[in-house]
Design brief:
By secondary structure, the chain is an alpha+beta fold.
Length: about 130
């Protein structure tokens, strides 16, 4: 429903703030639009935080599925973090979080191809290298 869409992908407890060292957009929740020849191909829902860019959700036009939207957005978002670090060496921004990873979900499998990657153990609450996870 429209209300469900609004609640899941638009409403956020994060307020946009513009602190010293923040990227020009500030900290907060944002939608990054990806277009091809003027057509909206996909939308990434992102949280920009002092230490990281966190990928919250991605939705895309099925006509562009052949472009591997998850991989495309991950590469663009990694590039964004690197650009911000080079633009402002004093920034505290250092990490890119790819969001949820469910090993049995084929659409999320590409996330395991990036290194270094760590998973948060739900039992110990310690970060574990993905390579050690079965």
């Amino acid at each position: 429903t429209r209300t469900g869409f609004q609640r899941f992908l638009c409403d956020t407890p994060l307020e946009i703030t513009h602190e010293e060292g923040a990227p020009p957009c500030g900290y907060g929740s944002f939608h990054m639009l990806y277009r091809i020849d003027g057509r909206l191909a996909m939308v990434a829902v992102l949280d920009v935080l002092p230490l990281c860019l966190s990928s919250v959700y991605l939705f895309y036009d099925p006509e562009f599925a052949f472009l591997s939207p998850g991989v495309w957005s991950a590469l663009e978002e990694i590039d964004w973090v690197q650009h911000e670090i080079h633009r402002n060496p004093a920034t505290t921004l250092r990490y890119y979080y790819m969001g949820y990873y469910i090993h049995t979900c084929p659409k999320m499998r590409y996330k395991g191809d990036y290194a270094p990657s760590d998973l948060l153990c739900p039992v110990s609450l310690h970060w574990v290298p993905l390579s050690l996870c079965g």
